[in-house]
Design brief:
ATP-binding; 437 residues; five-stranded antiparallel beta sheet; transmembrane helix; membrane; Helix Hairpins; 13 helices; disordered C terminus; alpha+beta
Length: 437
């Protein structure tokens, strides 16, 4: 280990340089000139080493410093060590910045680093996607020039960041902005996409509004008849009509509550293991009798099922899906309609289909049919007791069986509701059994 440079070492070097000059001056005379010559030689040696150091620092810039002698050896070595430490620190800082940027890129939020004046000096990829920023083109730009929204401008200028700002962008995205100090004179702006949260909140409000509306109608009818009975004694046909209407409205509320509970249970159900064997042909034989009883001869109903086609799944959920599709065909088609129900094996799996030759469904309604409480004809749905929840139940039950409902309709010709369970869920398929087990 080299010793560090000290004034004692410099003084020793000067004495060693002057000692020969002192001896020569005493022997031959002219001592001051010999001492002056020795001092000039020492200064010249130091000047030469200074030039070598300057050349190494600013021109050569190689990693290895020039070799030094005497007092310059620890100086060169010390500078080399300091340079090595700086290189290590730069590498560590580079790795730290890379880790920070990698972590920032993996966050589900848009991040923008700005000065207090709003000048951007870094942003992650999600900020480019959500906020429309470009990197590195927007480096040095003021964020207020890129996000031109009065609410956002006011939010930054007021500098009250105790509460987040929710902003609807021109792209119809709902973003929640938060600003926090990052370092001295710098801000960290965080933007989170809360569009789905707003949609879910809107769906929740609509759901409760629809439930309230659906329950209010029969309750109003019941309340009206009860008030009539309390004011006057109803007898004969009037009394029978009142009792029949109240019973009908009670059944309607009971059916609505049952469907709400069914939908809630299916939505909250965990992922199914699909180990239960479901005898769909037996289920369809029972449904055929129920459908014919419900129709009372008003429809021409035909069932066609492969008697050996059984599947793995959840019996309750598949029964809910299939029965809702069959009951909808009976309840929402006019008298004289031909309804065909089929359960057959296809190249894609086990296919269930309900078709009718009724009036059909307009194309604009089909994408929304599985929404809760959505009705094509609200007046007719209420007359037939429909709640608008049947197809929502079907949708969620099928999603648990890796299937989806497909709806096709040609008004005045044919309307079909169809779904296909994957081939691996067919009971008699050996490959399916091995996959399931």
């Amino acid at each position: 280990m080299l010793e560090r440079l000290s004034w004692k070492r410099l003084l020793l070097e000067l004495l060693l340089a002057c000692l020969p000059a002192l001896i020569v001056g005493l022997l031959v005379g002219g001592l001051p000139w010999w001492l002056l010559l020795a001092v000039l030689a020492v200064l010249g040696w130091h000047f030469a080493n200074l030039l070598r150091l300057s050349h190494w620092l600013w021109i050569d810039r190689s990693i290895t410093p020039p070799t030094g002698r005497g007092s310059w050896e620890p100086l060169f070595y010390g500078l080399y060590q300091m340079q090595a430490r700086n290189r290590r620190r730069r590498r560590e800082l580079g790795h730290l910045i890379k880790r920070f940027r990698s972590g920032a890129e993996s966050l589900p939020d848009a991040l923008v680093l700005t000065t207090e004046e709003g000048t951007i000096f870094w942003c992650n990829g999600l900020a480019q996607q959500l906020l429309g920023l470009r990197w590195p083109e927007d480096n040095g730009q003021n964020i207020l020039n890129l996000l031109r929204y009065p609410e956002f401008t006011l939010y930054l200028r007021q500098r009250d960041f105790s509460r987040p700002l929710t902003l609807v962008l021109n792209s119809h995205r709902h973003l929640e902005f938060r600003v926090m100090p990052y370092s001295e004179g710098q801000w960290l702006l965080v933007a989170r996409d809360v569009t789905q949260m707003h949609q879910l909140e809107g769906a929740r409000r609509n759901f409760f509004a629809n439930v309230s509306h659906e329950l209010r109608t029969p309750l109003t009818v019941l309340q009206g008849y009860l008030e009539m009975m309390s004011d006057a004694v109803l007898e004969g046909p009037s009394r029978n009509k009142a009792l029949h209407t109240m019973q009908e409205q009670t059944r309607r509320m009971d059916a609505l509550v049952k469907q709400l509970l069914t939908l809630s249970r299916i939505e909250a159900a965990p992922a199914l293991d699909l180990q239960e064997k479901v005898d769909v042909p037996l289920m369809l034989r029972l449904l055929q009798r129920e459908a014919e009883t419900l129709s009372q001869g008003r429809h021409e109903i035909h069932f066609s099922a492969d008697p050996q086609l059984r599947v793995f799944g959840n019996d309750e959920q598949l029964r809910s899906a299939i029965s809702n599709l069959v009951y909808n065909a009976v309840n929402h088609t006019p008298d004289g309609t031909r309804i065909t129900v089929s359960w057959q094996k296809t190249s894609h799996g086990a296919q269930f289909k309900v078709c009718d030759n009724g009036p059909g469904i307009a194309a604009e309604h089909i994408p929304r049919l599985t929404e809760r409480f959505y009705r094509v004809d609200k007046a007719r749905s209420r007359q037939t007791g429909g709640s608008g929840l049947g197809l929502a139940i079907v949708k969620h039950a099928l999603s648990h069986h890796h299937a989806r409902l497909e709806i096709t309709s040609q008004p005045g010709k044919e309307t079909c509701f169809c779904f296909s369970l994957p081939a691996r869920l067919i009971v008699n398929n050996e490959l399916a059994q091995n996959a399931v087990h």
